[in-house]
Each structure stands twice: as C-alpha cells, then as structure tokens.
Amino acid sequence: MDEIINGIQQIGIGVLDVKKVFNWYRKHLSFNILLFEDEAVAALMTKYTDGNAEKREAYLSLNMTGGGGLEIWQFKDRVPQPPSKGVQFGDLGIYAMKIRCKNLTDMHSYLKGITISHLSEITRSYDSYFYFTDPFGNRVQMVEDHYVFCKESSRNGGVLGAVIGVSNIEASIKFYSTMLGYTMIAYDNVETLEKYSKKEKYRRVIISQEQKSVGGFGDLLGPTQLELIQVLDRTPVKIFENRLWGDLGYIHLCFDVSGMGSIREKAKHQNYAFTVDSANSFDMGDAAGHFSYMEDPDGTLIELVETHKVPILKSVGLFLNLKKRNPHKTLPKWLVKSLRLHRVKKDK
Fold first, then answer.
1. Closest by Cα among 255, 163, 177, 165 to 209
2. Where are the domains of the chain?
3. Sign (positive/negative) of CA torsion 273, 277, 16, 309?
C-alpha cells in the first residue's frame, strides 16, 4: 500500500495537570470532544524518557469545526520539568501550535477579555495571525483560516499546524517534503524581530501539502501548514535539551497516516529511520492502531499513527473498525460527526 498522509491528528502537550489543561481548552477554545482518556505505561518511549518506562495519563480532545486535536499528556510518577531557560522564538523544536480561526478580531477581543498573557497584536501581511501564551506557558498562534468541517458555535477550529525552530531550513524542507508531502512553499522571507531593544533576524518559511485526496478522518483534520523558523543572529538551543519527552511543552507533532509499512521503508531509505515503532498495534483502551516516531533533522519528534479502532459510543460497545476500509476514501461525514457523542459540557 502506498503511504497516505491524511492530516495532522494531534499535537502533544506535556502538562502538570491533564484535567486542568483539558478544561481550559474545552471552555475557551472548544476542544470539547474527548475522544479518549487513558492511563498506561509508555513502555516503547524509553529512548526519550531516560531509559525508564514512565506511567502517564493522556487525553485526546478535538474541535469539530475542523483541524487536529490536542493530546494532553501527564506523567503520573514524575514531576514534569520546564525548560531551564525561557523558550525563545526560533529555538529548536516546536515553539507554538497553530490554530485555525475564522475571525481573528473577535478571538483577539475574547482573549483580551479573559486577560490572557503575552497577547500580541494582529499581524496582517502574507498571512494574518497573532500569538498568545496559554495559562500553562505554551505559545499559541491563532491563524486566519476559513476551513470548516462542521458548523459549530466555536470562534476557532482545531490545530492547523506548528511553528518549528530549525537550524537549517533547506535540510528541514527536504525532510518535511520527502516524508510528509510538504512540497509547496507558500512563503519564504527574512524578517526582523524587535527584542529587548535589539533587532534579531530570522528566516520564516511556510510550507503546505498539495491538495490531494486523503482517507479516513482527512476531512475532519483539514488542510495543514508548517512554519519553519531559522534565527540568523544567534545559535538556537534545543527546547527539550536535557529534558524528557513528556516534560512541559510541545512534545511531538502527530500525523494520521495510512500505509505505515511503506512509510517505514521510505524513512529507512531516506536516512530518517523510525526511532520508535509499535510494529503491529497499540491499544489505548478506547482507541487502537499502529504508531511510530521519527525525528526531523533537529530532533523534533514526529509521530505517525495508523488508526485501527475509534470509539463511537463506548457505553454500548460501538467502535469504528478502520482496518478493512479503503484507505483512499474519507469516512462519511455523518459518521465522523458522530464523534460529537463524546462532547464534554462541564469540567472534568
């Protein structure tokens, strides 16, 4: 089977309190579809957890307007550590997640009204966006984007992509184009950031995938974009230097895929071999599938998930089995909309 990249399934966020983070994003950004909640031991991730199989709790939440979800991830037997120094724009790794937003002005006013921290002004150039910091220290970029899978009352949609600090943009473009299909360069320019009365130059490149047919949940996940940042006036540091996967911040970017075997062989041939591979299937209780990890040229973790089973109505044992479906066809819209049965309307 040829490999298919269906879209960004979720972005992983290491947190101190999974319920508190879920409740904030449910209330303020409408990530209110709790697809699963699970406690388990991350036995396959010891390469990134200092050799220890760490117990963790994870929630996967979605916004049905359209876009990727949030995998909110918490150690159970270890206090997750913050960066030793504040993360700077352009440091190596995932600096911010990008969330699609129908009306930036309305969203900006809402966030200002709840006194969110580090709320930037709206930038309108090639693209329109603004940044803020959530109450847990994570940078978020709201991007004007009008893709809608399902009409909701939400001011925003789900995850559109990520802002990723890189050391060599050309090497990163090669990785993301070869392995994930980001062959379209939508924007490429050297810009200047005013910082502490100094000007810092950086190269900003926005890449996207060609609009091709996708399978499974591709219609829900929608189009995506990645923003690569290379600082030109200083040497960036790794955001997760001397820390573990699962510590505080953005721990990975996850893609929903089909044809994991083909992707594995391609990754090996291109010298991007998988660093973690569940080989056959994982079981997270409510969901199951095949997951793998690979690293971009700077070590940023990219997760790939081939979904096999998704809960529709767990209370009566109703699950969607994807293993025998045609991977080139998207699921019927009415069926994907049934995920709204997982909507959470009050704090956990």
1. 177
2. 4-342
3. positive
C-beta of residue 208 within 8 angstroms of C-beta of residue 182: yes
CB 187 within 8 A of CB 129: no
Enter the tokens of residue 219: 């219609």
Q: Which fold has domain 4-342?
A: 2,3-Dihydroxybiphenyl 1,2-Dioxygenase; domain 1 (3.10.180)
Residue 112 near residue 121 (C-beta atoms within 8 A): no
Element (H, E) at 173: helix 169-180
Q: Are strands 249-258 and 4-14 parallel, antiparallel or unpaired?
A: antiparallel
* φ, ψ of residue 339 in degrees (nearest 5): -60, -15
Averaged pLDDT of the chain = 91
Please say if the pLDDT value at position 98 is more than 90: yes
Question: Of the ranges 16-30, 31-45, 140-154, 302-316, which one carries the lowest mean pLDDT score?
Answer: 302-316
Give, in order, the Cα–Cα distances in Å from 339 to each of 119, 186, 274, 335: 32, 33, 31, 8
